[in-house]
Each structure stands twice: as structure tokens, then as C-alpha cells.
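Action item from last meeting closed. Structure (276 res):
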């Protein structure tokens, strides 16, 4: 159709060869060869990498290196995603994201991972759809606790952006881009879903407040700035995961709120048939 752009040639988009939590396989590499996207997300698993607090699995780090090198060898830009919901057991046992003292745990993990493989990727996603993880139906936590989790993740994002930029700069690598990904839906759909019980938040809590905190360091209540981060430019791009039929609406609504390059995240189920 006139005016539409295939994701395979839309350089602002990001392709997922595998879903979060799935292992990189030869089938994923074959899919990448067939689709030939400009960018490909590579998911790191916190649970697999930091198996005990402060102790990292070198075998898992080697597997992550190989995945990043495979993407680069196939002429796609690897985008390293540091977190997509896989919490280590020891982190959960300590209270997980609800405990303010645990904010430092993610930063230690991010720092160690970027030092180990950061020379293999110039682009990073700190958090993949944290709003979906927090607000998904069936979670038995109240609104206050949900915003607490989102707030701590947003604080970690801001601190991780500086950490990643500084780590790569120390290696003489200047071409660094760091962003985050949100699950997005049209505001009207979220409002209707709240009334029918299909979702637990309006567009404000689900995507707008997290976007402002993570992109600009603007923590609008009930978001809480636990680390007292300063307002600033804390993201180089915003990735959006949304249903294909809602993509244009979601890009328009988030684009009005956040002045950032917007990237559609697509695949693996779409392969080369998605829309920009």
C-alpha cells in the first residue's frame, strides 16, 4: 500500500528474532538471515547471568557475546536488551523491585554486563515493557505497589543510561544510544479495558507517567523519585510494542508526549510482514 514501509527496511525499527526469555538458536539466526532487519534485539537474562548475588556465570556471558556477534555478522545492528522481566531468585528473595535498597542490584548487573560485552553493541535497551510486567492482569498488587515498582525501574533506567554511556566512553566508544521499550495501547482502549476489567490502569499510569520518568527524569506523582535523579535527556529513543492495527495511533499519542525517535518493535511472529 502506498505510504507504508516494511520493517525490514525501516531503519528506526527493531526486530526480535526470539521472544524475551527464549534462548538464541540457529533457528533464530536463520530467521534473521531471511528478514534482514536493520536492527535486532538481543535479550540478556539477568537470572542466567548473575546466578548468585555478585557472582556471574561466564558461560552465559560467552553465549551472550556469541549472540551479539552473530547479529553483527549478519549485517544487523545488535541492540542489547538488559532486562525483560527475568529476575534472579536471590533478587526476588530479597524483596525484588519493591525494596528501595535493591535498586543498586540492577545497576551492578548492568555495569558488569556492559563491561563484559559492551564493545559488541552500540545500542541498548535498559528495560523491555516494564509497564506490561507491572500492570498485567492477574497481578495481585494494588495501585500504590504497582507505581512503586515502576518508579524503582525508572530510577534504575536513568542511572543505567549514565553508566552505559560512561563505560563505553572510557573505552573510546562514543556512538552510544540507550533507550527503553514500553508496551503501548491507545488511550481509549485502556480506558475501556479498565472499566471491563481487562487491564488495571489508564493510559496515564500504563504508559505516559513511565515514559516521562524514564525519558526525561520527570517523576509525576504517584511516580516516586527514590534516587532524586535530575530532569534531563535520559533516553535516545523509545521503543513501542503494540498490536499492528494500533501502531499509528500509539506512535501519535506517545509522540505528542515525548520528543524522541520512536521505534516499532516487531517479530518474531510477524517476520517480514509487519508494518512500520
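Sequence:
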Amino acid at each position: 500500500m502506498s505510504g507504508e514501509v516494511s520493517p525490514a527496511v525501516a531503519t528506526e525499527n527493531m526486530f526480535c528474532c526470539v521472544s524475551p526469555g527464549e534462548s538464541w538458536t540457529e533457528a533464530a539466526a536463520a530467521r534473521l538471515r531471511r528478514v534482514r532487519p536493520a536492527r535486532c534485539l538481543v535479550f540478556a537474562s539477568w537470572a542466567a547471568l548473575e546466578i548468585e548475588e555478585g557472582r556471574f556465570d561466564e558461560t552465559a556471558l560467552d553465549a551472550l557475546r556469541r549472540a551479539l556477534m552473530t547479529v553483527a555478522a549478519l549485517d544487523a545492528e545488535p541492540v542489547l536488551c538488559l532486562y525483560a522481566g527475568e529476575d534472579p531468585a536471590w533478587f526476588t528473595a530479597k524483596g525484588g523491585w519493591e525494596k528501595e535498597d535493591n535498586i543498586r542490584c540492577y545497576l551492578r548487573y548492568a555495569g558488569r554486563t556492559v563491561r563484559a560485552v559492551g564493545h559488541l553493541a552500540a545500542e541498548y535497551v535498559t528495560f523491555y515493557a516494564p509497564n506490561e510486567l507491572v500492570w498485567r492482569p492477574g497481578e495481585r498488587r494494588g495501585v500504590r505497589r504497582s507505581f512503586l515498582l515502576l518508579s524503582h525501574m525508572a530510577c534504575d533506567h536513568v542511572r543505567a543510561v549514565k553508566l552505559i554511556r560512561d563505560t563505553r566512553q572510557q573505552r573510546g566508544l562514543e556512538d552510544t544510544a540507550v533507550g527503553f521499550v514500553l508496551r503501548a495501547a491507545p488511550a481509549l482502549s485502556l480506558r475501556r479495558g479498565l472499566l471491563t476489567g481487562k487491564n488495571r490502569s489508564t493510559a496515564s499510569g500504563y504508559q505516559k507517567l513511565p515514559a516521562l520518568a524514564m525519558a526525561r527524569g520527570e517523576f509525576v506523582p504517584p511516580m516516586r523519585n527514590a534516587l532524586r535523579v535530575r530532569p534531563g535527556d535520559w533516553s535516545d529513543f523509545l521503543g513501542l510494542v503494540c498490536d499492528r492495527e494500533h501502531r499509528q495511533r500509539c506512535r501519535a499519542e506517545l509522540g505528542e508526549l515525548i520528543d524522541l525517535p520512536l521505534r516499532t518493535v516487531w517479530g518474531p511472529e510477524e517476520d517480514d510482514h509487519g508494518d512500520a
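Note appended to the action item: Confidence is low (pLDDT under 50) at residues 1-11, 271-276.
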